[in-house]
Write a structure and sequence with these properties.
Elements (H helix, E strand, L loop, with lengths): L2 H5 L7 H12 L8 H20 L13 H18 L2 H13 L7 H11 L4 H17 L5 H10 L4
Helix pairs in contact: 2-3, 4-5, 4-6, 5-6, 5-7, 6-8
Length: 158
């Protein structure tokens, strides 16, 4: 689960939105009632603020669009931002956008392009992305064998 999923917001570079989401979730993850949940929420909050300060323009143009014609363009924009910023969180976000979209999830060329972008980030970031993808695939039993094979080869799982 990404920090954005934990905070239940889309990726943003606006600290006020991050703080608002954090405050709203504090009711759900009160430190006395759910110390582990609170700890995870606090870590997500701090990480989101750090990303916001580190890369103030990284998330400016990321958005989810409903028109399938424009979804591929949105996917490419997110990948370009990830490549420019060398941010694993943007590539992870892109993975989640694609895997959750019924139109895009089975488009092998889109995944091949995504995997090429993953290869451009540092090895540590590749490992973080690979671990996230593996966890997501294990949680989703509806992912096709062809897509699993593509990830297996593209992310060097053996």
């Amino acid at each position: 689960m990404t920090v954005w999923q934990k905070l239940k917001i889309r990726p943003t570079n606006e600290p006020d939105l991050i703080k608002k989401a954090y405050r709203a979730l504090l009711k759900e993850y009160h430190p006395e009632d759910d110390p582990e949940g609170f700890k995870q929420l606090r870590e997500a909050y701090e990480h989101a603020l750090a990303e916001c300060q580190k890369q103030p323009t990284a998330f400016t143009n990321i958005h989810i669009i409903s028109s399938t014609e424009n979804e591929y363009d949105s996917v490419n924009k997110t990948i370009e931002l990830a490549e420019e910023n060398h941010s694993p969180s943007l590539l992870i976000n892109q993975f989640e956008l694609q895997i959750d979209n019924p139109y895009l999830r089975y488009q092998i060329p889109i995944w091949q392009e995504w995997l090429q972008k993953v290869q451009l980030v540092s090895l540590a970031n590749q490992q973080e992305i690979s671990s996230h993808v593996l966890h997501e695939i294990l949680d989703k039993d509806w992912i096709s064998g062809n897509l699993v094979a593509l990830f297996w080869h593209g992310l060097g799982w053996s």
